[in-house]
Design brief:
Blueprint lengths: L3 H27 L13 H12 L6 H10 L1 H10 L11 H6 L6 H8 L1 H13 L3 H5 L5 H5 L4 H17 L6 H12 L3 H12 L4 H14 L13
Helix pairs in contact: 1-2, 2-4, 3-4, 6-7, 7-10, 7-11, 11-12, 11-13, 12-13
């Protein structure tokens, strides 16, 4: 017995082939007739539905999906719909719903469209030990600085860190420091101000954050930002 997913895929393929066959038959019979009308079979809908049905099962082939997203309009539409990237209620959280906090190429698109929320997810990536995977994405700081809501996003994430500290909800102060070292590359002025404020307070967690950040910044190469404070 054919499993449901495979059956649905076969049906979608059959619909595409049927519409293309009808188009081919119509054209072959009338293409030399000057009075013939251009066939208007709906080949877009079955093609879109086929691509849409393939996105979720292959969501872990990030390189493959990213490649077709960047070069094919149909694939782009199918991926955006499947990942709820334009959904009214979910678009601000689509990356988290699809990939959780595991960094991959689609994170750059998420940052571009939802920068403040994305920064909080990146902080969680650092806190949960995905720092090296994130840094390997090798994102261009200049491009990030051009994202809409860039300034607002920086302000928001600094406020979130402060709120978590005051609420005793900082998971890993060292890793927060590593995150701030990455953020420092985006907005030196704001992060330096925060670091100086932390340095002026007698607080173990804040001092750990500052030491971790300063140590990371002393080794500015991105591949070295993963070094732990000893």
């Amino acid at each position: 017995m054919v499993p449901e997913k495979q059956k649905n895929l076969i049906n979608e393929v059959a619909k595409c082939l049927n519409e293309l066959l009808l188009l081919g038959v119509d054209c072959s019979m009338n293409i030399d007739n000057k009075e013939a009308k251009l066939p208007d079979q709906d080949i877009e809908t079955p093609l879109f539905n086929l691509l849409y049905s393939l996105v979720r099962p292959y969501k872990h082939d990030v390189d493959g999906l990213y490649k077709v997203y960047m070069k094919s309009h149909f694939w782009k539409l199918a991926i955006r719909k499947s990942f709820l990237m334009d959904d009214k209620d979910e678009k601000g959280y689509w990356y988290y719903h699809v990939y959780g906090i595991e960094p991959n190429k689609f994170l750059f698109l998420y940052m571009e469209e939802h920068f403040p929320i994305a920064l909080e997810k990146i902080l969680e990536m650092f806190e949960r030990g995905y720092q090296e995977e994130f840094l390997r994405l090798n994102m261009d700081e200049k491009e990030i600085k051009g994202f809409k809501l860039f300034d607002h996003g920086i302000d928001e994430i600094l406020n979130i860190i402060d709120e978590r500290h005051r609420g005793n909800r900082l998971i890993e102060p060292k890793r927060v420091g590593h995150f701030l070292a990455w953020l420092y590359l985006l907005d030196k002025k704001k992060v330096e101000k925060i670091l100086e404020e932390y340095e002026s307070v007698v607080d173990e967690d804040l001092q750990t954050i500052v030491q971790s950040c300063r140590y990371s910044l002393a080794h500015r190469a991105k591949e070295q930002l993963s070094l732990e404070v000893v």
